[in-house]
Design goal:
Strand content: under 5%
CATH architecture of one domain: Up-down Bundle
CATH superfamily of one domain: Amino acid/polyamine transporter I
CATH topology of one domain: Amino acid/polyamine transporter I
Largest sheet: 2 strands, antiparallel
Order of helices and strands: HHHHHHHHHEEHHHHHHHHHHHHHH
Structural class: mainly alpha
Number of strands: 2
Shape: globular
Number of helices: 23
CATH class of one domain: Mainly Alpha
Radius of gyration: 25 Å
Distance between the termini: 44 Å
């Protein structure tokens, strides 16, 4: 807000902010009103727990709370480059070694293909939603419309936490790779504070500075960010092209002789870990509000970029095997030491440069996605609404971008890579699973139109799909080598999906672009994501539970009441506008 007063007439403090920017809702105007809100928590929970938004609400009323609109300046070319830049960071240089040596052997190529096709299923689900609901909230919006406020809030709170951890982790890795370029130990570019605990004693100002520079780029212009991302990604692809050429000229095809030393289980085990090399595209979906022609540009951009990434990952993993036998591959620095093994020690600088460029674009996509998630959450008042502000000059969410960058920088400045790596959780897989489930709900259920019979059958089949998918994943996780468990769970999943296809009438068709083979592809996406979740360590589930508990506390004491008041205000405004239209219409008829 410009000037010295806020919209309610209250004076702003010296920092330019007032209480109305953080908690403007009726429930927080006085101690009495807040206590009254807490006394009504039970009834408000009943009202909001399963409350579903609507497409037109998200596209107009909710988005309108930002007052300014983001500029629609992106096309399919921008989305393709953003997709590649968001996904292809340092993962290919790190994950491939462990997957090939410890699990799949030369069949790591097949593992990358399997995990890539699993990611592509999620991309298809995201694409349909992003075309139909091109707003900044991404998966938060999709889940809010189909699965309700509460599910969307818990999912968004967890994924924002993971975004922060991932952003801080990549920023510190940036410092490590920069040190490698100058033949230094990774910690040599950090300051050691002996008075701090060991895991927080290596202070990293470079990580903070890089994050702040990325923040400035993201705040200035989304189109400018796109140009920067395109240039950095092209440099990254040139490095990958160098690796491919070396592999083809120096490689030995005999290294593929023992193709799958650990059989199908080793291939699938590797696929579970390699899936994390494909995450990041969900942040690109938050750019939907800034795309010129969503019906054309989003499908081409999201699906096209993922197909390119799958191809490149398969070629790069094959190149690594051509250069060095799988049992000699170094787990920590596979490509660098593979080049050393064939006498190209200088190539490690090329690899480090490629990793730096890749991490830079990942950082940019990370902060763009974070900010737009937070912006739309602020619009719903589940987070402070000042985060929903769109800068009038740049038409970007400056407030949300700056806040998230400060959090990333603080975490990255103090926290070691080991701690950050252990904090990465299963949230991404959970979100992908929920989005696939939400797509099934969207296609087969429309409130007020779907019959109670079809609704009950939908619930039954969804429960069977969910239960059989979880049972298959658990059976895999406990390490059973037999096939009896799969002979029960997989047919149940198949019959439930077939029943949904044949016995429940599809309630909604996509207007512009839709996932083909519904319900099969969304159901398969849900099942495969749940299957991969079984490979996540138990500590991640504990961390997920703790963070979710903290989110629940914030929801019960703050977010529930803020979103309840905001929803009530929107309903009252809409009712008043409708009444005015009816009165005007009646007066016009009397006049005639």
């Amino acid at each position: 807000m410009e000037g010295g007063e806020n919209e309610n007439g209250g004076k702003k403090r010296g920092c330019g902010c007032s209480k109305q920017d953080f908690l403007p809702e009726e429930s927080f105007q006085s101690c009495r009103s807040y206590l009254n809100a807490l006394c009504n928590t039970k009834s408000r929970l009943r009202d909001r727990l399963l409350a579903r938004s609507a497409d037109h609400m998200e596209l107009h009323e909710i988005r309108g709370r930002s007052q300014q609109e983001m500029k629609k300046r992106l096309n399919w070319w921008d989305i393709i480059w953003f997709g590649i830049g968001a996904v292809m960071g340092s993962g290919i240089f790190v994950l491939t070694g462990e997957a090939a040596r410890n699990h799949s052997g030369p069949a790591v190529v097949v593992s990358y293909l399997i995990s890539g096709m699993t990611a592509l299923l999620s991309v298809l689900c995201y694409t349909e939603f992003c075309v139909e609901l091109p707003v900044a909230g991404g998966s938060f919006t999709y889940l809010r419309v189909e699965l309700g406020d509460f599910v969307a809030y818990i999912a968004a709170g967890n994924i924002l936490f993971e975004y922060v951890v991932a952003g801080a982790s990549v920023a510190r890795s940036w410092t490590s790779y920069l040190a490698t370029l100058f033949n230094h130990d990774p910690n040599s570019f950090r300051f050691h504070a002996s008075s701090f605990p060991e895991d927080y004693s290596h202070l990293d100002p470079i990580a903070a500075v890089v994050s702040l520079l990325i923040c400035i780029t993201a705040c200035m212009s989304t189109k400018g960010s796109s140009r920067f991302n395109s240039i950095a990604t092209i440099v990254h692809l040139l490095v990958l092209l160098f690796i491919l050429i070396v592999g083809l000229t120096k490689g030995n095809p005999q290294h593929f002789s023992n193709f799958a030393p650990n059989g199908i289980r080793g291939i699938l085990k590797a696929s579970s870990s390699l899936f994390f090399a494909y995450v990041g595209f969900d942040g690109v979906a938050t750019l939907g509000e800034e795309v010129k022609n969503p019906g054309r540009d989003i499908p081409i951009g999201l699906i096209g970029s993922m197909l390119i990434i799958i191809l490149l990952y398969c070629l790069l993993s094959a190149t690594l095997i051509l250069i060095q036998p799988y049992y000699q591959i170094d787990v920590n620095a596979p490509f660098t030491l593979a080049f050393q093994a064939i006498g190209l020690k200088w190539a490690k600088y090329i690899v480090a440069l490629g990793a730096l460029k890749g991490m830079t674009t990942v950082l940019l996509a990370n902060i763009l996605g974070q900010a737009r998630y937070f912006t739309h959450i602020g619009r719903t008042h589940m987070a402070p609404p000042f985060l929903a502000t769109i800068n009038e000059k740049t038409r970007t969410p400056v407030n949300a971008t700056v806040v998230m960058t400060l959090v990333n920088s603080i975490v990255g400045f103090f926290t070691s890579l080991d701690v950050l790596a252990n904090l990465l959780s299963l949230t991404t897989l959970l979100i992908f699973s929920l989005v696939a489930l939400a797509l099934l709900v969207r296609r087969y259920y429309v409130g007020g139109e779907t019959t109670s019979s079809n609704r009950n059958k939908l619930i039954l089949f969804l429960m069977l799909i969910i239960g059989s998918s979880i049972a298959t994943a658990v059976y895999w996780a406990i390490g059973k080598n037999g096939w009896i468990g799969y002979a029960v769970t997989v047919p149940i999943w198949f019959i439930a999906t077939l029943g949904l296809n044949l016995m429940v009438k599809e309630a909604k068709k996509p207007k512009l672009w839709g996932v083909p083979l519904v319900p099969w592809l969304p159901s398969a996406s849900f099942a495969t994501n749940v299957f991969i979740m079984a490979s996540v360590d138990g500590a991640s589930y504990v961390r997920f539970g703790i963070w979710t508990l903290l989110l629940l506390l914030y929801y019960v004491f703050i977010a529930l009441h803020a979103s309840y008041d905001a929803a009530k205000e929107t309903t009252d405004t809409t009712s008043a506008a409708t009444a005015t239209c009816l009165e005007d219409g009646g007066a016009s008829q009397l006049h005639h």
